[in-house]
């Protein structure tokens, strides 16, 4: 929303220049298609719908009933009267007693009219007050429903002089006994699938036609324009089928005023458009069966029904008759056809005396209604996408009118088609018993095998996709797969191995994906993400083409990071845009809040939803028990297979595991500032890596380098001492696991390597063990007390969460604490996560050091349990601390385009950093030195270039560059990195001013970067609001959060706007790419 939202949304007419202010949206009590979404979904055919058999909670019924009755009495000028108060009390008592109430006829009439008035997709709302209401809430049977509908059609048709009518059947009670009209419209044409795959009739009704035939509808000779029977359901009972008498339906043969041959095409259409499958929602009461009608706008028939390629698609036939040149789009033959077909529709309806109107008249009528609504109600919900006519759009007045889309009650809502979950009747013949012979037994076996295979082929196709960085998502997906395979045609794929074109063939797609880094896809999901982006950019035809195609996404992530489950949200939104039906809302499982329990709950929910979607009955208790068979795999069946004569290629294995081009860089320089020796020392490491000018390591300032750490020898030795059946250290081995079919298969996570390399490079020994791992350890414990303790941690989520929060116990610590555990090496390693690379902001510019990458990292080391527990050491910084000059580091470059320098260097920049967060800014100032032709001095660079580096280029004028203000914080002044370089940058006017905050300086009060920003608030506000400054923030998450709050506070205080408006300005700042963050760590 905009800043002026609290005062109304301004909507401009770009033809007249007139501006309307919509305030009615402030009464919006319904969620829209874009609520809590990152992508707007309002252009979907069904952008929002009522869940199947949804029963509204009592408190919601009370709320909506009061709002409706207030509006009803306000409309009748009786608001606040005794009658009003008495009615509210009566309704409140009924809802409290029965969870529902009965609308009076006058209330029903008012509600029906308001639902039409509030319908954002209807262009004919100018007639809302003339709607005729037939009250059929008394009917009890499908036969009575049929009689009411025939009465509706006769009254509405009125010999061609159509009247707007709605018939309201009994409301929803318990969510299971609904009255439903299964047809999408009361009158529509059948569609028949021919053996060659072509369609006779209306392609949009093929599935429903097949359903009608299966229910017993008989037709002697099929044509392109057969009226479908009515399929009606009363009280949730099985549906009944009724044929509409021929004399009830008024049909119009189509002719053209200028082309005699047009009538020979045999085209026709019906007079009455009556929507039958929408739910009428009024005052908290839902009416699943409430068919209503208006009349046709010509383009609905001429453009959409007859010329749409997915409907009757007569364009080429008409073009051929008109002898048009169809060899090129530039002849505009399609436009010519569309015009003539619409002429024929309007001419035919007028000649038969049937009410209709053209799209220009309809548009002008709506504009009058729109202006009147703005005057009388202060707003008008309107869906521009639907209201603008499908032809001559830009010459319609609607095209140039801005509109606001929101949803009010009462309303007409989309709902799941009643027939979508109905099974076809299956005939079963009884076979007489007789003594079988061997031949008969063999035939029976083959027959059973054939029938089982045939039945299996009829099961829904469910594909499970995963993208996993640490192995957690893959582990969850594998568990889900073994549960699904007994119910569906289930297949399991890593996203890196999946052909995205296959999405079109699936009944259901289930994705379990983790989010990596700052909202990125895991390495084995990166290509899948790029494919989804490419599909959107190229407007590809890849879609979930089955109408029953559905999807569900489980996102894994940590709320410690700002872009929580960002990849999961991306996949969920893209699947919806591709036409899939969301089976369940996106579920985000938090690593910090019992992720495994969240997965188990989600798995049960998604299984139940799939079974309901495809009419599969399953006993949940048995289903849950079936799942335990796979859980037992964790107790396991794993082994090492020795490979004779093979050679190890660590770099290739790293590349294969992480789906990246991993390179080697040599350490050519290293220094440490601070105390790295003590248990709680604070130190910063500076590394100079020689890339040998590798093409795989080309970077820009602000990009990241992924470094692959190694477990040190001490932790590896401690680990192997607690294991059984360890292979020889230098033997080339392949880890194998046993699948449910008792067959051994290679562990897909890691290619063959030595046991030494496996433990040092690929197995994560420093993370907290999962509950699955603890379950395995419990099964291997000899001491009963230790077994019981481990079982509690493995099964009780609250105990596990508390145990993890107490202090950084890794798998080696657990094995030493529970000394009676003797676990098989292969079994344990097969369920431990894969060791992941760590990402560091590059602190150099390739323009200055073209064959080098510089890293800056803070050593992670602390005492757990408030200083009384173990010493926790960061894995990768400990590894970097130990390496020496000449050692090689395995790494790969990762672009961080959201943190690059601005395209327009004349804009001012505000750099905010703490600790090692200064790293990317060092790359920035090096790049600015290069661009401005300023000599650059550095201890590292001196060894290569001499004391001063001087670029051999024509530097650009200094006045083309905006000012740079650096705010930097660390614990003590003595720990401040790059202090001499910063002074040089000030001297050469690369950096305009610097501000330093020290939080542990002796003899001084604590000061943080956000304190400096607040103190400098007037200038910060002016630069952001008036000068278009770019703000860059790099450091730990906690610091970044405080900086964000401070920036908003500054905008609010010095921009003279309120808090809500300041937050909106800040959101816009992010959306424009002027507020950039590169954050890390949870503390």
From TrEMBL:
Enzyme class, spelled out: oxidoreductase
GO BP terms, alphabetized: nitric oxide biosynthetic process
Enzyme Commission code: 1.14.13.39
SUPFAM superfamilies per the UniProt record, alphabetical: Ferredoxin reductase-like, C-terminal NADP-linked domain, Flavoproteins, Nitric oxide (NO) synthase oxygenase domain, Riboflavin synthase domain-like
Domain annotation Flavodoxin-like: ranges: 462-607
Catalytic activity: 2 L-arginine + 3 NADPH + 4 O2 + H(+) = 2 L-citrulline + 2 nitric oxide + 3 NADP(+) + 4 H2O
Domain annotation FAD-binding FR-type: ranges: 660-902
InterPro entries, A to Z: CysJ-like_FAD-binding (IPR003097), FAD-bd_FR_type (IPR017927), Flavdoxin-like (IPR001094), Flavodoxin/NO_synth (IPR008254), Flavoprot_Pyr_Nucl_cyt_Rdtase (IPR001709), Flavoprotein-like_sf (IPR029039), FNR_nucleotide-bd (IPR039261), NADPH_Cyt_P450_Rdtase_alpha (IPR023173)
Keywords, in A-Z order: Calmodulin-binding, FAD, Flavoprotein, FMN, Heme, Iron, Metal-binding, NADP, Oxidoreductase
PROSITE patterns given in the database record: FAD_FR (PS51384), FLAVODOXIN_LIKE (PS50902)
Cofactor(s), by name: heme b; FMN; FAD
Signal sequence annotation: none
GO molecular function: calmodulin binding; flavin adenine dinucleotide binding; FMN binding; heme binding; metal ion binding; NADP binding; nitric-oxide synthase activity
Highest taxon of source: Eukaryota
Binding site for heme b: 122
Cofactor-binding details, from the entry: Binds 1 FMN.
Family that this chain belongs to: Belongs to the NOS family.
Functional note: Produces nitric oxide (NO) which is a messenger molecule with diverse functions.
Protein name, entry field: Nitric oxide synthase
